[in-house]
Amino acid sequence: DGRLIYSENYRFDAAGALIEITKPENLPVGAQILLSSYRLHFGDYYGFSVKLLYLVMGLALTWMVVSGVNIWFAKRRQRDLLNRLWAAVSWGLPLGFALSLAASTALSWSPTPLLWGSTLASLCAARFYRDETQMAQHLFYATATALGFALLAYNYQHWAYVASPAAMGMNSFIGGALLLTLLCRPRALPSEPR
Predict the structure, then answer these.
(1) Cβ(79)–Cβ(89) under 8 Å?
(2) pTM: predicted TM-score of the whole model, two decimal places
(3) From the CB of residue 17, how many other CB atoms can be counted at a distance below 10 Å?
(4) Is the pLDDT of residue 176 over 70?
(5) How far apart are the C-alpha atoms of 187 and 189, rounded to whole Å?
(6) Residue 190 DSSP label
């Protein structure tokens, strides 16, 4: 019917008898707006094209925020631990996602400890690096390697289905992440800040 309301609710008692049906169209307008936020949040309306639009807008917002912080760091007069911590966050999280994907694909490991463990390790490593650009480049190469490994591991495990739409979608996702990572290679900051 074109509305964004998420679902109807059915309540049953312990014996399985229906107690009540709550239809969103019978609720007050405020409750309908609240229920519609679920579908808005996940882009569950008007098909896959809206999900792709959400992806592009999310990546654009992330790119804008990271670029703005990078510009601010480039204009700072001092190079200190804060610069290296930012490099650890901005490249440690993508590394964490890539390692999680690779390990869960190849070894069926739980991705959550790898994500947070590698991010924490990146933050700890920031203390020992002297140059944030070198640290960012090391994390960049590790991220690209992990994504390449994830792509190989996925195709190895699902070789019989490599031409299926699901496998091609997953290959496109991992390959796109690898391409995006390669396009975002960290550059050296100016040696003499203004």
Answers:
(1) no
(2) 0.70
(3) 7
(4) yes
(5) 6
(6) P
Query: Of the segments 39-48, 58-67, 70-79, which one has the largest average pLDDT value?
Result: 58-67
Tokens 């390669």, located at residue: 182
Cβ-based neighbour number of residue 95 at 10 Å: 27
Query: How buried is 101 (Cβ within 10 angstroms: 0-12 exposed, 13-18 middle, 19+ buried)?
Result: buried
Count Cα neighbours of 43 within 13 Å in the Cβ-side half-sphere.
12
In Å, what is the CA distance from 150 to each residue of 91, 107, 115, 140, 170? 18, 10, 14, 15, 10
pLDDT of the residue at 57:
93
Lowest mean pLDDT among 83-92, 158-167, 183-192: 183-192
The answer to whether 153 and 106 are in contact (CB under 8 A) is yes
- Report the half-sphere exposure of 88 (CA within 13 A, side-chain side): 22
34-43, 61-70, 140-149: lowest mean pLDDT where? Answer: 34-43
CA dihedral 180, 184, 185, 187 (to 10 degrees): 170
